[in-house]
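User: For my dataset I need records formatted as: sequence, then structure tokens, nothing else. Please produce one.
Assistant:
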Amino acid sequence: MATTADMRSGLIIKVDGSLYTVVDFGQNKTARAGAKVWAKLKGVDNNRTIELTWNSGETIHPVRVEKKPYQYLYKDDTGYSFMDTETFEQITVAETMIDAPKFLKDGQEVSVLINGETDQPMGVELPDKIVLLVTYSEPGMRGDTATRTLKPATVETGATVNVPLFVNEGELIRVNTKSGEYVERVKE
């Protein structure tokens, strides 16, 4: 069995029958009492965020999770469809299970988190950074680079990203999928 010493960010644990991802954790030590371990948890199968505290050395119940490569196919009324790149099996997941659905494009490779006990999908993670085509952007003023001024740009997935003034329509940009921010312009 695992204890609070095995706590780490990204670990998925079972608490009161629900699954939670450890977002942040730490220890509180006092001179008089034993150490306490606290964790901020985000629900995998629900939309709750909770904080829990355990005595140091208490038992926790981690869930075995497999990360498998899948390819995004399409979106319809039932949800988002993905195909296993090894077995070609297809699964459909709800939008709430995807960390950044606005950046999904056809044929994109993603990681699907599969519960090792039930073989059910628990979430979909996009790569940290992806390359997207700017489909619409107002033209920037030449030479206006003294300040870090940003303008909105629409990318091929339909999402809006704030980009520097020198980025124009038809260019490729790298976007951070976790924060939704512009990273750099990509040369072909």
